[in-house]
Amino acid sequence: MRAMAGSGVMRAAALVAVLSLPAPAVGAIAGGTPATIAGAAPDAPAAPAPKGQSGRALPSAGVVESTTGAKTPATAAAPHSTPGRGTRSGSNPAASPLAAAAAAEPSSAGISRGGRSPGGSAPVAVIPSSTTPAKAPAPTPPRRVVSVNLCTDQIAMALAAPGQLVSVSHLAREPQSSAMVAEAQRFPVNHGRAEEVYLLAPDLVLAGGYGGASVALLHRLGVPVVEVPPPNSLEDARAAIAQVGAALGREAEAAAMLADFDARLAALSIPTGGDRPLAATWGPNGYSSGGATLAGDVLRAAGFALLADRLGMQGSGYITLEALVMADPALIVTGTPYPGASRAEEIVTHPALSSLSGRIVHVPDPLWTCPTPRLLDALALLAAEARIAAARPAP
Which CATH number do you get for residue 305? Predict the structure, then answer.
């Protein structure tokens, strides 16, 4: 218990020290530069600091992403090719800002068994080389994972090993946003602030594409972060599941989830051929989704054409009530209403909509906000609506 308490005090002290320094000094600490740290000698040789991999940046840090956000270039803190895990900041002394000075001290680790280092006077034992190169050790899966994003929360809860995930964002418990409210009760929640996340001693943080200052500060503190970009298509959703699975060291579990996803998708009865019925998503202030969004891609996969596409919208944007009424789409899709009344939401139930010939269908936001298998529930519902619309006589 004393050791755990001492570790917590040291992390808190390190955090305070880093937050009190200007960015260049913090960068020097995070990068392993020994100068001016804890009295390190200016001429001491700098040992290279351990660097953990971090994935490119799927919605982050305590922010609810839009159900159907615009196509946004993925923000990246590090290369995306292999999302991985870095050194655990709570267990490796070299990863601690307070211990960076220790890395500057000359090391005797260069002395090999059976002899002295090349600079010594005694002979050095010669180890014969092998013709077969040694295999690199497999990366160790992270043991303390913190998720600060609604979508990575849900993927991690589905894929993580028992005890591997130690905290999820508070959004995971909100029924208006999350499809895994019951599962989220098993985990402590965070609000995406770098200070609270750092004190949880994670060896991996899962974030979305909008981490901003919190993710930047975690990087400066040496905490490995994998950023998952917001998905704008079903294919992006598959990539997000694979990325989180790789980051957790749970590739087999992610592959099984994707195989089930593909099997369920193939089993859906989706109308093909003929003219596609017209559909539009309709939210507060006339907010609607275009083709380059997850919701837009799901609607097209279900067999619909998008009103937003006809109006030249690629990502998310706004459609006037007049444009919606004039188009008279076969299907209008509304989302999850929030408690209370607002002028922004009045347009969703405007009396003019009752004059339209199409159907108005409610699809809960949690089904298709995030890249999880629940997307297929939304797709199945919309495919059924597409069959109804296709069978309806033309006006």
Answer: 3.40.50.1980
- Number of domains into which the chain is organized: 3
Sign of the alpha-carbon dihedral angle for 162, 163, 167, 173: positive
- The domain containing residue 22 runs over which residues? 1-49
Is there a domain that residue 106 lies in?
Answer: no
For the stretch 315-364, pLDDT in tens is: 899 999 999 999 999 999 999 877 767 888 888 989 999 888 889 999 99
Q: Could you tell me if 74 and 34 lie in one domain?
A: no
Each as own residue / partner, the long-range contacts of residues 170-179 (CB below 8 Å, 24 or more positions apart, any chain) are 170/62, 171/62, 171/64, 172/147, 175/366, 176/336, 176/338, 176/365, 176/366, 177/64, 177/150, 177/365, 177/366, 177/369, 178/150, 178/153, 178/154, 178/366, 179/154, 179/366, 179/367, 179/370, 179/372, 179/374
Q: Please state, in angstroms and rounded to a whole number, the distance separating the CA atoms of residues 61 and 330.
A: 38
Question: 251 and 354, same structural domain?
Answer: no
> Residues 29-79: pLDDT tens digits?
344 433 333 333 344 444 444 444 334 333 344 333 343 444 443 333 333
Long-range contacts of 22-27 (CB under 8 A, 24+ apart): 23/220, 26/97, 26/220, 27/220
Q: Are residues 177 and 297 in the same domain?
A: no
User: Do 82 and 222 share a domain, yes or no?
Assistant: yes
pTM above 0.70, yes or no: no
Query: Is 380 in the same domain as 234?
Result: no
